[in-house]
């Protein structure tokens, strides 16, 4: 693997990991606040799963960088600034109401199921194996969020109204998930990653029929996104400062 | 001094338990994939059940301590996802122990995990298959919560993966 390809791959894997980590952190914010105890437990599980998935992607990055797995993962999570994070803006947004969090998780789970399925055929063995691994765990996520989107979308006027509002806010942010990443052509050519445009059409096939069934209207907005994954909302900085403060206060602490 | 044989290392690993389910060993759960021995150094390859399992690093440390105590020079525990962990790998003996512990073992799916498999569990108390999934998410990443309609007991299941 030449240096340019290796660098592009690392940036891309960081994007996968950062999406998972930041979404996992947002999910964890429901712990103790979900409407019923079963959902409190469910969101705490989703959070831990996503953070575990982030660690899997970071492990491959550590290997490509030739660094110690644990020390380097800690560095990636706790000692990068917002400029160095590669997450998409959709995962940065605050939790909002229950409909908002559930819809975001559903949109992301559906994206992951399509992406991971394609990545499980990657020419890079560790990427393919990790994608296959995460894909199995994600079956539980998508089933859960799919059921909740239907429940809220087909539920009361109030739940439908909130879902519609969430969809209008979230939809424009989804474009960034499918936006070309730097040197994507090289990575696709090498067979390392799938072409993101093909992922998008498969994703739409998964989510659009459900919205139609629930009479949720996808906003027809001008595609103002995508922006680069180097650009973040102000929410990321707030999230990072909370997530990183303790470790940064005493980087050598053992517990 | 004689170095440990592969059989001896596997035997020692049978004493290392999953801290979240202390009745079954890392070997019976299919978490240990490979043991490589070079003179007095041992490399153990583990595969996580669920990626975010917080018990994984405890198991790693337990393995290191166990083998070091047995006189191994350098112990290296590494994680691998290829192939990813499959709940069909849980041995029959471990399935029996899980049931005794009150955890329904996962149904065997033959390699392809289908959504329809996620609702299937036999009650560990009375054996009835007339059970209802209450929550796919439970007290640990690997457990789902069911209710037995026959003996009217809630129970947990080790999730198929």
Précis, in short:
The complex is a heterodimer of chains A (255) and B (161). With 255 residues, chain A is mainly alpha-helical. In chain A, 70% of the residues lie in helices and 0% in strands.
Written description of the protein model:
Chain A has 255 residues and is an all-alpha fold. Chain A has one domain (3-249): Ferritin, core subunit, four-helix bundle (Ferritin). Chain A has 10 helices and no strands. Chain A is globular and about 55 Å long. By secondary structure, chain B is α/β, with parallel strands linked by helices. Helix content of chain B is 20%, strand content 27%. In chain B, helix 2 (56-69) links the parallel strand 4 and strand 5. Classes of the chains: A mainly alpha (255), B alpha/beta (161). At the A-B interface, helix 2 and helix 6 of A face loops of B.
Strand-helix topology:
The complex is a heterodimer of chains A (255) and B (161).
Chain A: H1 3-28, H2 37-65, H3 69-78, H4 89-92, H5 98-119, H6 125-153, H7 157-174, H8 184-189, H9 196-213, H10 234-249
Helix pairs in contact in A: 1-2, 2-3, 2-6, 5-6, 5-7, 5-9
Chain B: H1 6-13, E1 17-18, E2 21-25, E3 32-38, E4 41-46, H2 56-69, E5 75-79, H3 92-101, E6 103-104, E7 131-135, E8 143-148, E9 154-158
Parallel strand pairs in B: 4-5, 6-9
Antiparallel strand pairs in B: 1-2, 3-4, 7-8, 8-9
